[in-house]
Design brief:
The chain has 321 residues and is an alpha+beta fold. Helix content is 31%, strand content 16%. It has helices at residues 3-16, 53-59, 89-96, 147-165, 169-172, 176-189, 195-213, 263-270, 299-306; strands at residues 18-25, 39-44, 75-78, 81-82, 125-130, 225-230, 243-246, 284-288, 291-292, 313-319.
Protein backbone atom coordinates (compact mmCIF):
# COMPACT_ATOMS: atom_id res chain seq x y z
CA UNK A 1 0.00 0.00 0.00
CA UNK A 2 1.37 3.41 -0.98
CA UNK A 3 1.50 6.32 1.48
CA UNK A 4 -1.38 8.02 -0.34
CA UNK A 5 -3.49 4.85 -0.26
CA UNK A 6 -2.78 4.53 3.47
CA UNK A 7 -3.89 8.12 4.07
CA UNK A 8 -7.09 7.57 2.09
CA UNK A 9 -7.80 4.34 3.98
CA UNK A 10 -7.29 6.14 7.29
CA UNK A 11 -9.60 8.98 6.27
CA UNK A 12 -12.25 6.46 5.16
CA UNK A 13 -12.05 4.65 8.49
CA UNK A 14 -12.31 7.88 10.48
CA UNK A 15 -15.28 9.17 8.48
CA UNK A 16 -17.11 5.85 8.76
CA UNK A 17 -16.21 5.24 12.42
CA UNK A 18 -19.16 4.75 14.77
CA UNK A 19 -20.14 3.61 18.25
CA UNK A 20 -23.23 1.54 19.14
CA UNK A 21 -25.44 3.43 21.59
CA UNK A 22 -28.22 2.27 23.88
CA UNK A 23 -30.20 5.30 25.02
CA UNK A 24 -32.80 5.11 27.78
CA UNK A 25 -35.20 7.78 28.96
CA UNK A 26 -34.51 8.97 32.51
CA UNK A 27 -36.90 7.04 34.83
CA UNK A 28 -37.79 10.25 36.68
CA UNK A 29 -39.25 11.68 33.45
CA UNK A 30 -40.97 8.51 32.26
CA UNK A 31 -44.64 7.57 32.79
CA UNK A 32 -43.68 3.92 33.30
CA UNK A 33 -40.45 4.60 35.20
CA UNK A 34 -37.84 2.28 33.63
CA UNK A 35 -40.06 0.06 31.51
CA UNK A 36 -39.61 1.77 28.14
CA UNK A 37 -37.66 0.19 25.31
CA UNK A 38 -34.16 1.50 24.69
CA UNK A 39 -33.31 3.43 21.54
CA UNK A 40 -30.50 1.57 19.75
CA UNK A 41 -28.34 3.14 17.08
CA UNK A 42 -24.89 2.87 15.52
CA UNK A 43 -23.90 6.54 15.62
CA UNK A 44 -20.97 8.27 13.88
CA UNK A 45 -17.96 9.07 16.03
CA UNK A 46 -17.46 12.41 14.28
CA UNK A 47 -21.01 13.61 14.88
CA UNK A 48 -22.73 15.38 17.76
CA UNK A 49 -25.40 13.99 20.08
CA UNK A 50 -27.86 16.92 19.73
CA UNK A 51 -28.54 15.88 16.13
CA UNK A 52 -30.20 12.77 17.59
CA UNK A 53 -32.67 14.68 19.77
CA UNK A 54 -35.58 15.07 17.29
CA UNK A 55 -35.58 11.32 16.67
CA UNK A 56 -35.33 10.54 20.37
CA UNK A 57 -38.10 13.00 21.26
CA UNK A 58 -40.40 11.28 18.76
CA UNK A 59 -39.39 7.79 19.95
CA UNK A 60 -40.11 8.50 23.63
CA UNK A 61 -43.02 10.93 23.10
CA UNK A 62 -45.76 8.66 24.47
CA UNK A 63 -43.77 7.98 27.65
CA UNK A 64 -42.85 11.54 28.63
CA UNK A 65 -44.41 12.85 31.83
CA UNK A 66 -44.21 16.32 30.33
CA UNK A 67 -45.32 15.98 26.68
CA UNK A 68 -44.77 19.69 26.05
CA UNK A 69 -40.96 19.55 26.22
CA UNK A 70 -39.10 20.36 23.02
CA UNK A 71 -36.38 18.23 21.51
CA UNK A 72 -33.82 21.00 22.05
CA UNK A 73 -34.35 20.66 25.82
CA UNK A 74 -32.82 17.18 25.80
CA UNK A 75 -29.42 16.37 27.26
CA UNK A 76 -27.42 13.21 27.86
CA UNK A 77 -25.62 11.72 30.82
CA UNK A 78 -23.37 8.76 31.42
CA UNK A 79 -23.33 7.36 34.96
CA UNK A 80 -24.91 10.64 36.15
CA UNK A 81 -22.26 12.76 34.41
CA UNK A 82 -23.74 15.35 32.01
CA UNK A 83 -22.07 15.03 28.61
CA UNK A 84 -20.84 18.14 26.81
CA UNK A 85 -23.07 18.37 23.75
CA UNK A 86 -20.47 20.34 21.74
CA UNK A 87 -17.93 17.48 21.99
CA UNK A 88 -17.99 14.90 19.16
CA UNK A 89 -19.38 11.51 20.20
CA UNK A 90 -16.06 9.75 19.58
CA UNK A 91 -14.25 12.09 21.94
CA UNK A 92 -16.89 11.62 24.64
CA UNK A 93 -16.69 7.85 24.29
CA UNK A 94 -12.88 7.80 24.44
CA UNK A 95 -12.86 10.04 27.52
CA UNK A 96 -15.65 8.55 29.62
CA UNK A 97 -16.66 5.04 28.55
CA UNK A 98 -13.71 3.27 30.17
CA UNK A 99 -12.99 1.38 26.95
CA UNK A 100 -9.35 0.59 26.33
CA UNK A 101 -7.92 2.27 23.21
CA UNK A 102 -6.89 0.12 20.28
CA UNK A 103 -3.37 -0.88 19.39
CA UNK A 104 -1.65 -2.03 16.22
CA UNK A 105 -4.63 -2.08 13.86
CA UNK A 106 -6.76 -4.61 15.73
CA UNK A 107 -10.52 -4.28 15.21
CA UNK A 108 -13.78 -4.83 17.01
CA UNK A 109 -17.23 -5.57 15.66
CA UNK A 110 -19.01 -2.97 17.75
CA UNK A 111 -16.93 0.18 17.89
CA UNK A 112 -16.10 0.98 14.28
CA UNK A 113 -13.21 3.28 15.01
CA UNK A 114 -10.13 3.33 12.74
CA UNK A 115 -8.67 0.67 15.01
CA UNK A 116 -10.52 -0.76 17.98
CA UNK A 117 -10.07 -3.44 20.60
CA UNK A 118 -12.73 -2.52 23.12
CA UNK A 119 -13.82 -4.35 26.23
CA UNK A 120 -17.20 -6.04 25.58
CA UNK A 121 -18.71 -4.48 28.72
CA UNK A 122 -18.40 -0.98 27.22
CA UNK A 123 -20.55 -1.79 24.19
CA UNK A 124 -23.15 -0.66 23.50
CA UNK A 125 -22.44 2.58 25.29
CA UNK A 126 -25.41 3.13 27.60
CA UNK A 127 -26.54 6.74 27.89
CA UNK A 128 -29.46 8.34 29.71
CA UNK A 129 -31.65 10.95 28.04
CA UNK A 130 -33.13 13.81 30.07
CA UNK A 131 -35.57 16.60 29.19
CA UNK A 132 -35.74 18.29 32.59
CA UNK A 133 -33.48 19.63 35.35
CA UNK A 134 -31.03 21.13 32.91
CA UNK A 135 -27.51 21.18 34.53
CA UNK A 136 -26.94 24.88 33.89
CA UNK A 137 -23.72 24.88 35.90
CA UNK A 138 -22.17 22.41 33.46
CA UNK A 139 -23.91 22.80 30.09
CA UNK A 140 -24.97 25.74 27.93
CA UNK A 141 -28.54 25.19 26.76
CA UNK A 142 -29.19 25.11 22.99
CA UNK A 143 -32.14 26.93 21.43
CA UNK A 144 -35.06 25.53 19.44
CA UNK A 145 -33.69 26.87 16.14
CA UNK A 146 -30.29 25.21 16.53
CA UNK A 147 -28.41 28.52 16.37
CA UNK A 148 -26.41 27.86 19.54
CA UNK A 149 -25.16 24.51 18.22
CA UNK A 150 -24.36 26.04 14.82
CA UNK A 151 -22.48 28.97 16.38
CA UNK A 152 -20.51 26.71 18.73
CA UNK A 153 -19.30 24.61 15.80
CA UNK A 154 -18.49 27.57 13.54
CA UNK A 155 -16.61 29.35 16.33
CA UNK A 156 -14.51 26.23 16.83
CA UNK A 157 -13.79 26.12 13.07
CA UNK A 158 -12.81 29.81 13.16
CA UNK A 159 -10.43 29.26 16.07
CA UNK A 160 -8.77 26.33 14.28
CA UNK A 161 -8.49 28.39 11.10
CA UNK A 162 -6.85 31.25 13.01
CA UNK A 163 -4.32 28.94 14.64
CA UNK A 164 -3.37 27.30 11.33
CA UNK A 165 -2.92 30.51 9.37
CA UNK A 166 -2.65 33.40 11.82
CA UNK A 167 -5.95 34.72 10.52
CA UNK A 168 -9.55 33.52 10.25
CA UNK A 169 -9.78 34.94 6.73
CA UNK A 170 -10.39 31.49 5.29
CA UNK A 171 -13.62 30.77 7.15
CA UNK A 172 -14.72 34.42 7.08
CA UNK A 173 -14.33 34.64 3.30
CA UNK A 174 -16.42 31.56 2.54
CA UNK A 175 -19.48 32.30 0.47
CA UNK A 176 -22.91 31.87 2.04
CA UNK A 177 -23.40 28.74 -0.08
CA UNK A 178 -20.08 27.29 1.07
CA UNK A 179 -20.86 28.02 4.73
CA UNK A 180 -24.27 26.39 4.35
CA UNK A 181 -22.72 23.39 2.58
CA UNK A 182 -20.22 22.90 5.41
CA UNK A 183 -22.86 22.98 8.15
CA UNK A 184 -25.27 20.81 6.15
CA UNK A 185 -22.57 18.19 5.61
CA UNK A 186 -21.85 18.14 9.36
CA UNK A 187 -25.55 17.72 10.18
CA UNK A 188 -26.16 15.04 7.56
CA UNK A 189 -23.08 13.06 8.56
CA UNK A 190 -25.13 11.89 11.54
CA UNK A 191 -27.91 10.54 9.33
CA UNK A 192 -25.98 8.59 6.69
CA UNK A 193 -27.48 5.12 6.33
CA UNK A 194 -25.55 3.70 3.38
CA UNK A 195 -22.13 3.97 1.77
CA UNK A 196 -23.36 6.13 -1.08
CA UNK A 197 -24.88 8.70 1.26
CA UNK A 198 -21.73 8.63 3.40
CA UNK A 199 -19.51 9.21 0.36
CA UNK A 200 -21.69 12.12 -0.83
CA UNK A 201 -21.59 13.82 2.58
CA UNK A 202 -17.85 13.36 2.91
CA UNK A 203 -17.29 14.80 -0.58
CA UNK A 204 -19.47 17.78 0.29
CA UNK A 205 -17.57 18.38 3.53
CA UNK A 206 -14.10 17.85 2.04
CA UNK A 207 -14.77 20.35 -0.74
CA UNK A 208 -15.13 23.12 1.84
CA UNK A 209 -12.62 21.91 4.43
CA UNK A 210 -9.85 21.75 1.83
CA UNK A 211 -10.48 25.43 1.06
CA UNK A 212 -9.88 26.20 4.72
CA UNK A 213 -6.88 23.92 5.10
CA UNK A 214 -5.04 25.42 2.15
CA UNK A 215 -6.62 28.89 2.16
CA UNK A 216 -3.42 30.91 2.54
CA UNK A 217 -1.13 28.88 0.29
CA UNK A 218 1.59 29.19 2.95
CA UNK A 219 3.14 26.87 5.55
CA UNK A 220 1.08 26.24 8.64
CA UNK A 221 1.78 28.44 11.64
CA UNK A 222 0.28 26.22 14.33
CA UNK A 223 -1.56 22.92 14.73
CA UNK A 224 -5.02 23.20 16.33
CA UNK A 225 -4.71 20.64 19.14
CA UNK A 226 -6.42 20.22 22.49
CA UNK A 227 -5.38 17.62 25.03
CA UNK A 228 -7.98 16.27 27.45
CA UNK A 229 -6.62 15.12 30.76
CA UNK A 230 -8.79 13.36 33.38
CA UNK A 231 -8.50 15.21 36.69
CA UNK A 232 -9.39 14.43 40.28
CA UNK A 233 -12.57 16.10 41.60
CA UNK A 234 -12.05 19.33 43.51
CA UNK A 235 -14.18 21.26 46.00
CA UNK A 236 -15.58 23.39 43.18
CA UNK A 237 -16.10 20.42 40.85
CA UNK A 238 -16.91 17.46 43.10
CA UNK A 239 -18.49 15.26 40.43
CA UNK A 240 -16.62 12.51 38.67
CA UNK A 241 -15.54 12.91 35.07
CA UNK A 242 -13.83 16.27 35.56
CA UNK A 243 -11.46 17.19 32.74
CA UNK A 244 -8.50 19.48 32.43
CA UNK A 245 -8.12 20.79 28.88
CA UNK A 246 -4.57 21.69 27.91
CA UNK A 247 -4.01 23.92 24.91
CA UNK A 248 -0.90 25.76 23.75
CA UNK A 249 0.65 26.92 20.49
CA UNK A 250 1.89 23.76 18.76
CA UNK A 251 4.13 24.47 15.78
CA UNK A 252 4.66 22.07 12.85
CA UNK A 253 8.38 21.99 13.70
CA UNK A 254 10.13 21.76 17.05
CA UNK A 255 10.97 25.33 18.11
CA UNK A 256 14.54 26.34 17.32
CA UNK A 257 15.15 23.66 14.71
CA UNK A 258 13.96 21.91 11.57
CA UNK A 259 12.85 18.71 13.28
CA UNK A 260 9.21 17.89 12.54
CA UNK A 261 6.97 18.15 15.58
CA UNK A 262 5.63 14.78 16.68
CA UNK A 263 2.92 13.86 19.12
CA UNK A 264 5.72 12.86 21.48
CA UNK A 265 7.62 16.15 21.29
CA UNK A 266 4.39 18.18 21.56
CA UNK A 267 3.14 16.28 24.62
CA UNK A 268 6.56 16.44 26.25
CA UNK A 269 6.49 20.23 25.87
CA UNK A 270 2.88 20.54 27.08
CA UNK A 271 2.91 17.99 29.90
CA UNK A 272 6.51 17.02 30.75
CA UNK A 273 5.53 15.38 34.04
CA UNK A 274 3.19 12.97 32.24
CA UNK A 275 5.41 12.58 29.17
CA UNK A 276 9.02 12.62 30.39
CA UNK A 277 10.04 10.81 27.21
CA UNK A 278 9.45 12.15 23.72
CA UNK A 279 9.53 8.69 22.21
CA UNK A 280 7.94 6.25 24.65
CA UNK A 281 4.65 6.57 26.60
CA UNK A 282 5.45 5.86 30.24
CA UNK A 283 2.58 7.22 32.33
CA UNK A 284 -0.14 7.96 29.75
CA UNK A 285 -1.06 7.27 26.13
CA UNK A 286 -2.46 9.75 23.59
CA UNK A 287 -5.72 8.56 22.01
CA UNK A 288 -7.42 9.84 18.86
CA UNK A 289 -10.52 8.29 17.26
CA UNK A 290 -10.37 5.32 19.60
CA UNK A 291 -6.77 4.38 18.83
CA UNK A 292 -3.44 5.02 20.49
CA UNK A 293 -1.41 7.54 18.48
CA UNK A 294 2.26 6.61 17.94
CA UNK A 295 4.56 9.05 19.69
CA UNK A 296 6.55 9.37 16.46
CA UNK A 297 3.55 10.51 14.40
CA UNK A 298 3.97 14.00 12.90
CA UNK A 299 1.31 16.39 14.18
CA UNK A 300 0.93 18.17 10.84
CA UNK A 301 0.28 14.91 9.02
CA UNK A 302 -2.21 13.79 11.67
CA UNK A 303 -4.04 17.12 11.46
CA UNK A 304 -4.37 16.88 7.68
CA UNK A 305 -5.59 13.30 7.74
CA UNK A 306 -7.31 12.79 11.10
CA UNK A 307 -8.75 16.07 12.41
CA UNK A 308 -12.33 16.17 13.70
CA UNK A 309 -14.97 17.98 11.67
CA UNK A 310 -14.14 21.32 13.33
CA UNK A 311 -10.51 21.05 12.20
CA UNK A 312 -9.11 20.24 15.65
CA UNK A 313 -7.07 17.36 16.95
CA UNK A 314 -8.98 16.45 20.12
CA UNK A 315 -6.48 14.17 21.86
CA UNK A 316 -7.57 12.24 24.93
CA UNK A 317 -5.12 10.84 27.46
CA UNK A 318 -5.49 7.40 28.97
CA UNK A 319 -3.44 6.67 32.05
CA UNK A 320 -1.29 3.53 32.06
CA UNK A 321 -1.03 0.95 34.80
Amino acid sequence: MTARQHDTSLQDAIWEGSVPLEIRLSPSECRVYDQTDSYLIQYPRLSYLPFLLPRLRAFFASFLIDPAVGSHEGWFSYEELPLKWHYPLGLLYDLFSGAQPAHDGSSNRGDRSPSSQQQPSTLPWRLTLHFGDWPADQLVQPDAEGKVLHDAFINSVKEADFLRNGTAKGIMSLSKNDSTQLWTAVQEQSAANNKRATAEQRSSYDAIFQKLLYAQGAPLRHIPMKVYLPSSPSASTPSSGHLRIVQALVTPFVPGGKEAQTIGTALHALLPALFPSRRTPILARPVLHGAVVPMSAHVEGIMREAAYLDGWLHVGLVMMG
